[in-house]
Amino acid sequence: MSLFEDDRPKKPSAHEIGSDLSLLSVDELKSRIALLQAEIERLTAACESKASGRKAAEGLFRS
Fold first, then answer.
1. Residues sharing a CB contact under 8 Å with residue 62, sequence separation 6 or more, in sequence order
2. Residue range 5-63, pLDDT digits in tens
3. Side-chain half-sphere exposure of 31, counting CA atoms within 13 A
4. Are 52 and 60 in contact (CB under 8 A)?
5. CA 51 – CA 45 distance, rounded (Å)
């Protein structure tokens, strides 16, 4: 590890909630929208998976 590695600017995350959008181009905004839509789909799938697991567990205890 080099002594100067810590001095390099850190790569910004793909999107930070609440960040200033005024300097972004339309293409950059569309890219962020696509990224966030994909994340919403991933979160929705995780919720559905957990809900189905919970239903299965509840079914075992009701029997």
1. none
2. 666 666 556 788 899 999 999 999 999 999 999 999 999 999 999 998 877 777 777 76
3. 9
4. no
5. 10
Token pair in block for residue 50: 């957990």
Angstrom distances, CA of residue 28 to CA of 14, 23, 33, 61:
10, 10, 9, 50
pTM over 0.85: no
- The CB density around residue 15, as the number of other CB atoms within 10 Å, is 17
Listed residue (1, 27, 33) closest to 15, CA to CA = 33
Dihedral of alpha carbons 15, 19, 22, 23, sign = negative
Break the chain into its structural domains and give their ranges. Answer: 28-63
